[in-house]
């Protein structure tokens, strides 16, 4: 897969945006920092699809509605900022994607933000500080899980 320089990259929140943006994108990246995401934008930049949707998973309120989560927004911003820098000729980001990338680059200490955000503090309270430590490791994993036929597999 290759894309012309300036291929569109969008950003959204939760399952509804994943469905909406995914209908128009060749690739959907779901960012769920304290549960699943361990890999950065290099895989996408190596052969960028024509359209990429980066979706911050967020959390759920007790009533089931979406609770935007800072950790997912920051990590999505990191992916988006990296795509903008790594894609030959640059990647064209939507205004929402640009805002997320800007938040990432403007955050002085994203690791401290991860430790201090609601979800990070909750994991400490539940006795899982190691989960926050692992999630705070930036660019530490080259493994990329890819959904194939309903199951995640490591990308080649």
Anisotropy-based shape: globular
Structural class: alpha/beta
Instruction: Trace the largest sheet across and list its strands.
Output: 2-3-1-6
Give the tally of β-strands: 8
Order of helices and strands: EHEHEEEHEHHHHEE
Number of helices: 7
Q: Would you tell me the overall average pLDDT?
A: 86
Rounded to the nearest angstrom, the radius of gyration is 15 Å
**Sheet bearing the most strands, described?**
4 strands, parallel
**Poorly predicted ranges (pLDDT <50, ≥5 residues)?**
1-6
Please describe what this structure looks like:
With 156 residues, the protein is α/β, with parallel strands linked by helices. It has a domain at 8-105. The chain contains seven helices and eight strands, in the order E-H-E-H-E-E-E-H-E-H-H-H-H-E-E. A four-stranded parallel sheet has the order 2-3-1-6. Strand 2 (27-31), helix 2 and strand 3 form a beta-alpha-beta unit. The chain starts with 7 loop residues before the first strand and ends with a strand.
Question: Secondary structure elements and their pairing?
Answer:
Blueprint: E1 8-13, H1 14-22, E2 27-31, H2 42-46, E3 51-56, E4 59-60, E5 66-67, H3 70-86, E6 92-93, H4 95-106, H5 110-116, H6 118-125, H7 129-135, E7 145-148, E8 151-154
Helix pairs in contact: 3-4, 6-7
């Amino acid at each position: 897969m290759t894309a012309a320089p300036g291929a569109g990259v969008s950003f959204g929140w939760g399952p509804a945006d994943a469905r909406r943006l995914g209908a128009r994108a060749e690739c959907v990246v779901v960012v769920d920092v304290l549960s699943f995401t361990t890999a950065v934008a290099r895989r996408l930049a190596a052969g960028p699809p024509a359209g990429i949707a980066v979706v911050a998973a967020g959390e759920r309120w007790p009533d089931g509605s979406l609770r935007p989560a800072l950790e997912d927004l920051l990590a999505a911003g990191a992916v988006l900022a990296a795509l903008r820098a790594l894609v030959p000729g640059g990647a064209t980001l939507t205004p929402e994607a640009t805002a997320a990338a800007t938040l990432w680059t403007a955050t002085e200490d994203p690791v401290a933000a991860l430790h201090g955000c609601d979800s990070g503090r909750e994991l400490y309270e539940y006795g899982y500080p190691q989960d926050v430590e692992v999630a705070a490791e930036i660019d530490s994993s080259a493994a990329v899980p890819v959904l194939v036929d309903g199951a995640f597999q490591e990308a080649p």
